């Protein structure tokens, strides 16, 4: 049976941010913490060892695979900052067109630094992702 690796835990978000080596990434992490908290309306929680998540939802895929995940989140990683938004949302792609300098994978959007992006679009991405997940996985 599959066991979910990335789970919500009680580790300190502030201690994690303080452990980020790069002073600039640490500064950006605090700014992201403020933006995500304000826009999402949720307090930050650690998910696994390195994801700062906001809110949570329970998913069940057509394959039967199920689990819990943060509605949105970020992680100030060594190479880039990972931003976590809903997958499968067509609105996300439209917003990313005006987001600024980034790359994206299936679930993550990667940025080098906060100054590279439009924070108003970031706020829209956070709200859109939460709304999409609430519609897709109602409680």
Question: Could you explain the architecture of this structure?
Answer:
35% of the residues lie in helices and 24% in strands. With 139 residues, it is of the alpha+beta class. The protein has a seven-stranded antiparallel sheet. It has a two-stranded antiparallel ribbon with strand order 4-5. The chain contains four helices and nine strands. The relative contact order is 0.16.
Which helices and strands, and how do they pair?
Elements: E1 8-9, H1 13-18, H2 23-40, E2 44-47, E3 51-54, E4 57-60, E5 66-69, E6 72-76, E7 81-84, H3 90-96, E8 103-104, E9 108-111, H4 119-136
Antiparallel strand pairs: 1-2, 2-3, 3-6, 4-5, 6-7, 7-9, 8-9
Helix pairs in contact: 2-4, 3-4
Q: Tell how many strands the DSSP assignment holds.
A: 9
Spatially, the strands of the biggest sheet line up as: 1-2-3-6-7-9-8
Principal-axes geometry comes out as: globular
What's the helix-strand series? Answer: EHHEEEEEEHEEH
- How is the biggest beta sheet arranged? 7 strands, antiparallel
Oligomer: single chain
What level of helicity do the residues show?
25-40%
Q: In whole angstroms, how far apart are the ends?
A: 24 Å
Whole-number radius of gyration? 15 Å
Mean pLDDT: 93
Number of helical stretches of at least 4 residues: 4
